[in-house]
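Example 3.2
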Amino acid sequence: MTGEATIAAVDEVEAVAADALRWLLSHARDTGGNGLAWAATPSDDETDPTFYSGTAGVIAVLLEAWRHFGDERYGDAAVRAARSVSAAVDGRENSSLYFGLTGMALALRAVHDEFGTPGAAAVRALDLVRARFDGTRWGDWFDLMGGNAGIGLGALAMGDVDLALLAVEPYLRTAEQTPAGVRWEAERGRSSRFHHISHGTLGVVHGLARVGLAAGRPDLVELAQAGAADVVARNEAGPAGFLVPHSDPQDHPDLTARYSYGWCHGPSGDAQVFRLLGDVLDDARWQTFADSCWHTVTRSGLPRRLQPGFWDNNGRCCGTAGVLALACDRIAEQDDRPGFARLLAADLLSRATRDTDGARWSNLENRTTPRLLEPRTGWGSGNAGIVRELLRYIRICQGADPTYAVTWPDQARVRSISLGRAGDGPSAPA
């Protein structure tokens, strides 16, 4: 199915999500011992246990599907997937939230909490993370996705406050002063400074704020405010909007757009951090910044692909599904008009490939030939992340529970639940 998006009925969205789950299950690989695993793409030789691109991320959507449909196939597959992730713990060198042991531990804990499966591998994973700390960091990356901030968030979600503090306290002594606040090196030796949630200042801010609040550490919360102030000072969208460049100096300007609008390097992710700061600081000013982000996103032109390279990704990290996550948060928290969420869901349906194998999404790369990339399985740029957001969108449209089966620690839970109106009202963007 391709072409222009039209408003899709909820039952059609649900049917496509079910077909996408069928496609995912058809590409599971038997690892022995009744375990299941996924590779990043069906053509890859090696399976991947991580959250961003592999099995741990698929576990999150399997648990979502099990809760949503009440179908034991999905719960059984999640338990079997946990076996393969458990077996991969000792061989995984990366410790991070998205690409390593911390994210794997969270997926294993989620299966344990739902089904009472053994939890020793999740504990073992965090023990390995703690043992690998060098006194400041775990590797070259020092951000949310691949470094300290994400490890701190994951440890906190697992109830390990001591490890969470171990992860975020180094930001106190490594902060770089700027005219408006502070920032940090994203990767060891990299001259560019990133600003957004995935690899930049706002991802560190998120970790500092959440861990600082939980641990009763006002110094960490104050540092989070200083980091946020630096990013706010870089806003180039005027008083109504919010748009900050990808990085300064621009990282790989020949390859990377100066401005993006998704979760990873744009206002869709920035707004998630501002939502959290509003809760942590009990300060309505941060919701104003989140609203400004949404103003910019809804007027950016997405999800239309306005020129080569603009909005070529359907996924949760860099694409439409990540924006849908924020749209659904706004409906649940603020009774926001559902028109833009409907538009995003309809666009995802229009871009799905559906056939006898099921449904799946491919992304585009305008700098390569062919442009159409192989469908991916996992959370970040793959089908697991897209289906997870579509299932939540369906529940919100039905006036049901807007929370996730597996809440990932870099997305704040909805503050209040305003149900019952998501299926009503006009279909134009808010």
